[in-house]
Each structure stands twice: as C-alpha cells, then as structure tokens.
Design a protein that fits this description.
Elements (H helix, E strand, L loop, with lengths): L2 E6 L3 H11 L5 E7 L2 H11 L3 E5 L7 H10 L5 E6 L4 H10 L3 E4 H16 L4 E2 L28 H11 L4 H8 L3 H15 L4 H10 L7
Parallel strand pairs: 1-2, 1-3, 3-4, 4-5, 5-6
C-alpha cells in the first residue's frame, strides 16, 4: 500500500520540487498540498494522510502550531518539519509538539524520501547536520537552563501572536478565529504582559527569534 503524503509550504517551487522527488518512487503518493497553516490543519484532519511535510514558517499558523493542533486532535498523521533553522530551540519545540522528523531545507532533496519512509514506519528522522542534538532516536533536549518565553503562552495566545505579528488587525483576527474583537484585545494585552514587551515591533522581533514567524 502506498504511503500517503501531504505537503505544506508557502513556496510553490519547493512544494513542486518535493512532489517531483516523492513521485519518482513506487511506494509514496502525494495526496494534497497547502500554502498556509490553517489549510494544512483542515486537510490533515479530514484526510488523515500517513505523513505530512510541514514548513516551520507558514502564514496564519506556523508549522509547530500546526503540529500541536494535529496531535491534540489525535491524528494518525506523522509530521516531519521542514526548516531553514538548525537552532536547538526550533528542534526542541518541533519534537515537543509531536513531530517525528526535522529536515533542514538545504538537505531535504537528499533526505525527503528516506524521512517519509522512516516516520511512516514508526521511526524518527533528522537531517545529518542536526543529528548531534539528539539524545536518543525519539527525543530532543533543550539546552540546559534555556526556557523559551513562548512556554508562558497558551495555544490560543500563540495563535493570536502569530496573526498579530503578520500584520492582521484586531477585527481581522476576530473574524479568522470566530471570536469577539474585545477578546482579541484582551489576548493581546495578556500576551504582551507575559512576554514582557510593550509594543508591536518588539513583539515581532521576539516572534521571529523564537520561530513563531519569519521574514521570507
């Protein structure tokens, strides 16, 4: 039986390249694509592919939060994160969210078929360049004494944080999440208090530094 794969990345060229590589095999079938995190969650929850290759930095909902949401909803789909970042915090957060693999984009062309087969079979896969971050085949540890400020936030607060730093107004956020504008305002104040920032530019810098969003 074919391994079914879903691709989520906001760069069409990368998706096309990965699809072409995967479809050269006789045991892997690409069953869908998305260019933002919310669309990815909807597709995965509806279709339950075997493996999802998820870009860590996507509009609306980043790859780590996509993974969090998929795992919270008990999806059978195994997630492999695609990333340009080899920073230990990114890797830690990906595996903590429930990912089974972490591929650097610079080596994804070489590794993607092996990664898909490995995680579909119940294993864990990481790019060679970050293999020394592993303490076992299934767990990544955060550097000693390093705690991400994002751990102070709830899932909803991280979700709103990303939408804020992407430039959405309170009304646009309220419409996207089907909540009131007043609730968004309350969340924004709470997020800034928890993160110790007082303005949006500092919020954007923090979000980029800790992988909530990125500048393409």
């Amino acid at each position: 039986m074919d391994i079914t794969v879903f691709l989520a990345d906001d760069h069409a060229v990368l998706r096309d390249g990965l699809r072409a590589l995967l479809e050269t095999t006789n045991d892997i079938k690409v069953v869908g694509e998305a260019d933002n995190g919310r669309e990815a969650v909807r597709f995965i929850e509806e279709h339950q592919p075997d493996v999802a290759l998820i870009d860590i930095s996507m509009p609306e909902l980043n790859g780590i939060e996509v993974t969090n949401q998929i795992m919270r909803n008990a999806s059978r789909t195994k997630v492999v994160i695609l990333s340009m970042h080899d920073d230990p915090e990114y890797v830690f957060r990906a595996f903590h969210a429930g990912a089974c693999g972490y591929l650097l984009k610079e080596s994804a062309g070489r590794d993607v078929v092996a990664a898909v087969r490995e995680v579909a079979g119940g294993g864990t896969y990481v790019s060679k360049a970050i293999a020394d971050m592993l303490v076992s085949t299934t767990q990544v540890k955060r550097p000693q004494n390093e705690v991400s400020p994002l751990e102070r936030l709830t899932f909803r607060e991280r979700e709103i944080l990303q939408l804020v730093v992407e430039g959405n107004s309170n009304r646009e956020i309220a419409e996207t999440l089907a909540i009131s504008v007043r609730s968004v305002e309350t969340y924004r104040r709470r997020i800034m208090q928890k993160l110790g920032v007082s303005n949006v530019p500092d919020l954007v810098k923090l979000a980029i530094r800790h992988g909530i969003t990125s500048i393409h």
